[in-house]
# Entry
Amino acid sequence: METFDCVNTTKTHSHIITDIRFRTNSTIFATSSFDRSVRLWDATKPTISPAILTGHTEQVMSLDFHPRKIDLLCSCDNNDVIRLWDINQRVCTHTTKGGSKQVRFQPCFGELLATATGKNIKIYDVETNSLLYNLETLELWSPGENNKTLVVPAHKGLIVGLADSPEGELVASASHDHCVKLWK
# Structure
């Protein structure tokens, strides 16, 4: 980072890359692509061919590493399919429907999985694979409580991104309505 040098890799996706996430406390990161694959990379060895996870039948839109179960990776595709991967074994361990634009595990704990599909945000219990909430509004909860703390209309267009700030109680959302919103 001090010199802003970059390393070009020899093996890349064959189509546009849609998401990139680092595994917690690791140099391992994953990328997803319209080429229907997920690739695992090691930042300390970027010129080595990545491991390729295949199984999606449509463009892979998003992915995320579980914050505690470091071998668990989640990805979703344009066909509304969510896949859970064991990255050590390089196999899909579970599939379900319910996310076509973005997936994000609950920060720190990973007990919940948020997915974005169209104008809806869905919240799943990761352990039981049960849908807890199907939201057309953005709902923010206090991390220590089960009760909703704030409900607001989210966006007029498709929600394509959600991110939390590790430095404060902020959530950012991005949409096809050309807006980025910060929620506190």
About this structure: The domain at 17-183 is CATH 2.130.10.10 (Methylamine Dehydrogenase; Chain H). The mean pLDDT is 81. The chain has one domain: 17-183. The radius of gyration is 16 Å.
